[in-house]
Amino acid sequence: MTDFNQQNISGQHFINGAWTSETTDFCSNNPVTNQALAFKFANASAEIVTNATAAAKQAFKQYRSIAPERRAAFLNTIADEIQADIEAITATAHLETGLPMARLQGETGRTCGQLRLFAANLINPIDNRYVDLANPERAPLPKPDTRLSTLPLGPVAVFGASNFPLAFSTAGGDTASALAAGCTVVVKGHPAHAATSELVCKAIERAANQCDMPAGVFNLVQGVTPEVSTQLVTDSAIRAVGFTGSLKVGRILADLCASRAEPIPFYGELGSTNPQFILPQLLEQQAQELASTQVQSMLMGHGQFCTSPGVIVAIKSDGLNQYKATLAQDIAAQSAASMLTSGIAATYQAQLETLIANPNIELIAQGESSPANHFTRPTALKVAANDFLASSEIQQEVFGPCAVLVECDDAAQMLLIAEQLEGQLTASVHGLEAELINNQTLIEAIAFNVGRIIFNQMPTGVEVCHSMNHGGPYPASTDSRTTSVGSAAMARFERPICYQNMPTSILPERVSVDAQGVKTF
Amino acid sequence: MTDFNQQNISGQHFINGAWTSETTDFCSNNPVTNQALAFKFANASAEIVTNATAAAKQAFKQYRSIAPERRAAFLNTIADEIQADIEAITATAHLETGLPMARLQGETGRTCGQLRLFAANLINPIDNRYVDLANPERAPLPKPDTRLSTLPLGPVAVFGASNFPLAFSTAGGDTASALAAGCTVVVKGHPAHAATSELVCKAIERAANQCDMPAGVFNLVQGVTPEVSTQLVTDSAIRAVGFTGSLKVGRILADLCASRAEPIPFYGELGSTNPQFILPQLLEQQAQELASTQVQSMLMGHGQFCTSPGVIVAIKSDGLNQYKATLAQDIAAQSAASMLTSGIAATYQAQLETLIANPNIELIAQGESSPANHFTRPTALKVAANDFLASSEIQQEVFGPCAVLVECDDAAQMLLIAEQLEGQLTASVHGLEAELINNQTLIEAIAFNVGRIIFNQMPTGVEVCHSMNHGGPYPASTDSRTTSVGSAAMARFERPICYQNMPTSILPERVSVDAQGVKTF
User: Fold this and answer.
1) In what order do the strands lie in the sheet with B402-408?
2) What positions does the domain Aldehyde dehydrogenase occupy (chains A, B) (predicted)?
3) CB-based contact (8 Å) between A132 and chain B?
C-alpha cells in the first residue's frame, strides 16, 4: 500500500475555492491499531464556519441559476475526479476506518453512481411538473395560466457519517442531491475520516474548476468540537441540513433547526434495528439457510450499517430451534474486529454488557474473543416477546454486530410486536408466498412502521435507484416524508413555486408545455 | 333569510360518530352588529380532546386501508351533502362572519370543488410512482425489484381559519387533502364561526354514514381556550397538523409539534403582504387602471385574504403620481365595514394607528369613517424605500384593507427590496413584456422569496388546480416545501414507502406496472 502521510493532506478547511491556513488541533486515528495517524487537522473556529456559510450564500446567487445540464456536468466531473484518485482515497479511508479495501472500492463506485444518477435525472427529469393552461372564457372568472416548478432552498449543511466514509460523506448522497437541486454546500467532515474527506474535497475542487463553477459552491470545514456543528446549523445562511448519525446528536441538531428565528428542514437519518419477521412454514423448510444469511447480513461492515438486521422475530417451533442452533454455530465462528472508531467500540461493549446482564436476556452465542480491547465480538441474544415489548432498552439499536432473537408464543404475539415497533428504516418478512398471502394484517402493521418493507431478502444493501426509500418514521429519521437515497433525495433541497400568467418569453424551459415531464391540463 | 337559532345547532362536539353532551361555555358573535348570537357552544375539556384523538386513531386502522375509489366516493358525498344544505350553511356563515352571501356561496362552491378535485385525483392519479424491476443477472449483486409508493401519516389535526369559514375550515382544503390521503381528521372549529362548523360537520356525518366509513373518520371539537389547541397538537395520536392563521399562534403550535417526543409535521399558512412590483413603462401607460385594480383586490373580503396585496413597490415618476391620485380617490370612496371578528378589527386599528403615527409614513387616503367602533376604514399609506427597508414594523402584514406604497428612487432600490423581502405567499410583477424581459434579475430575486410569482394579475383568487402553490418561504408558511391548495396539498399527509421484492399476489394495485402513473425502469 502507498505510504500516505501529512504531505498529501493539508489538514485545512476548503472555503470559497481556497484552502485556509490554521493551526492544527486533532488527528484522525487508525481504529485497527488504535493509534493516531500522521494526519493533523484544524478544528474550525467560529470565524471559519461563518466564512464557509457566507461563501456558500454568495455562491448560491450564481449557482441557483446555472442550467441543469451544467449542474449535471459538474456532478459527472466530480465522479470522474473521485475515480481518478480512487487509489489514494480508498487507501486513506482504509487507514482511517479499517474497512476492507474491496468494500471501500465498492463504496466509491456507489458514491460515483449516486452522482451520476442525479446528473442523469437533471438531463432526463423523471419528476412531474404540472401546467394548467389559461381559459379566458371561463365564467364567472377567467382561469389564469399556472405552472408548478421548484426552486433550490439555498446553502445546505451536510454532516459526514462515520460508517460510510464515501457514500454518506463529503461527496455522498446528501451533497450530490443538494448540488443537483441547485443548492451550494458546506460539509462538516467527520473527524474519524478527515483525511478521506480532504481527498474527496480535492476531487470536488478540481471538478468545480474544470466546470467553471462559482467559488463557494462547495466548502469543507473540519472539526471535532460540538460547537462547529451547532454553529453551522444555526447560521442564518444555511437553509437545510443533511445528517447521518446517532439519534442523540441528530435530535440536538434537529431541535436547534426547529428553534431558529426562521426554522429550516433538518434531514436526519438516525438508524434502526431493521427487524426480521420469519413466518413458520418457511422457517420449518429453511431454518439453517435463514440463520446463515442473517449472520452474513449482520456482519457486513462489522454490523455498522444503518440497515443491519438487529432484531429477529419468530414463533417457537422445531424450525426455530434449528435456526438458533445454526445461528449459534455461525456466530461463534466469527472473529472479533475493530469498529469504525474506538468510541463506537466502547459504546457497543457497554450496551452489550448491560443487555447480557439483563435477567430476561439469554446469550445465544458470541464470536471469538480478542486480546485487543477495542475489538468487538459478534453476538446473538434471545428474549421472550413479552419481555421485549416491556423494555424500551432491549428494543434500542445496538450499533454493531449484535442481533436479538425475539421468541413469540404465537402469531398474535408477533402481530403485537409489529404493531408496537418504533419507526424503522426497514423490516423484512420472510415467508412462503402462501403464508404471506395469509399474513396481510401483519404485513400492513409492519409497513406502517417502516420506510422500506422487504420480502425474503436481507435489509443490508440499499439500492441506488428511482424507487428507493431510505428513511422511515421517527426515530429512524427525523422527517419520514423524505429519503436520503435514490432519485427522490433531491426533493429534500427544493420547494415548489407557481408561475402565474408568466409570458412565454421569460418562462423557465422546464415548465414549457413541451418539456420532458410536463403534464398539461 | 331563514331564522336560525339554537334549535338548529347543538353546540356540542362530534366524536366517533356521535354528538357529545357538555355544558355550554361560549357563543359565536355577529361581527356586523357586534352582538352575541343565540348559538351556544361547549369548550372542549381535556377528556373530550383525548376522546376525539383516540377515535381518530382507532378509525385510522380501518380508514388507511380503504380503497382510493371508496375514499373518492366519500369526498364527493361530503360535497353533495354540503351543497344539499348550502342555504343554511351560507346563511349561518353570513351571521357569524358578516361576509356577503354571494361570496359565501362562491366559497361553498370552491370548498366542494376542492373535495371533488381530490376525489378525481384518487380515481385518476396524477402523481408518479416509480418501479425499478429486478435484474437477477446483475453483477456483482442481483438487483431487487423495488417500488415506491406512499402511506398516510395518521390522524391529522386541522385548525379552521377565521377568514375562510368554509374553504379553509371544517371541510376545507386541509381536511379534504388529509381524508384523500387516507388520514382521519380532528377539526378544531374556529370559535368565530362555530355554528357554520357544526353544520358542515353534519354534512360530513351524513356522508360518512352513507359511505359506510368507520366511526371516528372525522371528529369536530369546539373550543375557545388555547389549551384545546395545545393539547391537540401534543397528543401522541396526532401525526400531522394543518393550520391557517396568525404567525404568532402558528409559531407557538409549530414549536410544540417540533418539541414532541416524536416530532410531527406542522403545516401553518401564516399570511403575507403579497407585494406588487410595478415597472415604469406600464405604470406610465396604465396608472389609473393599475390603481383601481389594486383597490378592488385589496378590498376583497375587506382585506382579509391571505393574498391581499398589502405592499406596492414602484419608482418615482409622473406615472406614479397619477397612480397615487387614483389610489387616493378610489380609497376615499370606500365604505368602512366590520371585520371577521371584533378582535381582528381592534388589531387592525391598533396597527394602523402606530403606522400613521410613524413620522416616515404619509397617509395617502382613508375610506369613509363610521360611528361603529368595530368598523374599519380602508387605508393607503406611503413610505420611502429606505425607510421601508429599515423598519421591520412597516414590513409586517396588516391584516385588513390597508396597503403601503413604497416609493423607490430607482431600479436599484426596487431590486434591493425584492432581495430583502421576507418570505411571501405571492408577489406580482406588473410590466410590459419588453420590460419584463429586461428585468429578469428583479424577477429572479422576487421568485426566491415567494411561493407564487404572478405577472400582470392581482394575487387575490387562488385557483384550485394541479399547478397551484399556496405556501412560501417562512414566515409565509412554516413549511415552504408544501402547498395548502391544489393537488399537491395531499402529499403533506403522506410519506414514501418502498416495497422490495414483494410478491405480485400481495402487491398494492397502485404500484403494479400497469397502474396509471407508474413509471417503470
Assistant:
1) A518-520, A129-132, A146-152, A494-500, B450-455, B424-430, B276-278, B311-315, B402-408, B379-384, B361-366
2) 21-472
3) yes
Q: What is the DSSP string of B268-332?
A: EE------EEE-HHHHHHHHHHHHHHHHHHHTGGGG-STT---EEEEE-SHHHHHHHHHHHHHHH
* Strand pairing report for A450-455 and A494-500: unpaired
pLDDT tens string B191-245: 999 999 999 999 999 999 999 999 999 999 999 999 999 999 999 999 999 999 9
For helices B173-181 and B68-84, the axis angle rounded to 10 degrees is 150
What pLDDT is stored for residue A23 in this prediction?
78
> CA of B505 to nearest chain A CA: how many angstroms apart?
7
**Residues B119, B17, B196: CA angle, nearest 5 degrees:** 70
A370: left (phi over 0), alpha (psi -120 to 50) or beta: beta
A269 is a catalytic site residue = yes
Nine-digit cell string for B421:
423581502
How large is the angle between the packed helices A226-234 and A46-63, nearest 10 degrees?
40
How many C-beta atoms lie closer than 10 Å to residue A54's C-beta?
18
Please give the Cα distance from B398 to A454 (Å, whole number): 53
| DSSP H or E run through A50 | helix A46-63
The answer on pLDDT for B7 being more than 70 is no
Residue B511 DSSP one-character state? G
Mean pLDDT of chain B: 96
A195 contact partners, CB below 8 Å, separation of at least 6:
A4, A8, A9, A28, A37, A39, A41, A92, A95, A96
Expressed in angstroms, the distance from the first to the final Cα of chain A is 61
Cβ neighbour number for residue B521 with a 10 Å cutoff: 12
* Amino acid (1-letter code) at residue B379: T
> A29 forms bridges with which residues in the sheet?
A36
- High-pLDDT (> 90) share of chain A, %: 96
Q: Distance between CA atoms of A31 and A38, rounded to whole angstroms?
A: 13
A21 — contact with chain B (CB < 8 Å)?
no
Rounded to an integer, the average pLDDT of A483-491 is 97
Give dist(CA B411, CA B425) in Å, integer.
23
Closest-CA residue to B267 (of B450, B494, B480, B466): B480
Q: What DSSP element (H or E) covers B51? A: helix B46-63
Chain B contact set for A132 (CB, 8 A):
463, 465-468
CA atoms A343, A344, A347, A352: torsion sign: negative
At A416, list the grid cell: 403485537
Structural domains for chain A: 11-135+142-270+479-511 (3.40.605.10), 276-455 (3.40.309.10)
Is A469 at the interface with chain B, CB within 8 A?
Answer: yes
Which residue in the block uniquely carries the three cell numbers 410519506? B495
Of B106, B448, B455, the CB nearest to A503: B455
For testing the chain A interface, which of B457, B474, B497, B498 should be mutated: the one with the most A CBs within 10 Å?
A: B498
Q: Which three cell numbers stand for residue B481?
A: 416545501
C-beta atoms of A503 and B433 within 8 A: yes
Q: Which of B481, B494, B499 sits opposite A495 (nearest CB)?
A: B481
Using a 10 angstrom Cβ sphere, with 0-12 exposed, 13-18 middle and 19 or more buried, the burial of residue B477 is buried
d(CA B498, CA A426): 9
Q: Where are the beta strands (DSSP E) in B303-411?
A: 311-315, 337-338, 361-366, 375-376, 379-384, 402-408
Give the bridge partners for A365, in sequence order: A380
B459, B442 in Cβ contact below 8 A? no
Active site residues of B: 269, 306
Question: How far A161 CA sits from the closest chain B CA (Å)?
Answer: 23
* B435–chain A nearest CA distance, Å: 11
**A464: which chain B residues are within 8 Å (Cβ-Cβ)?**
none
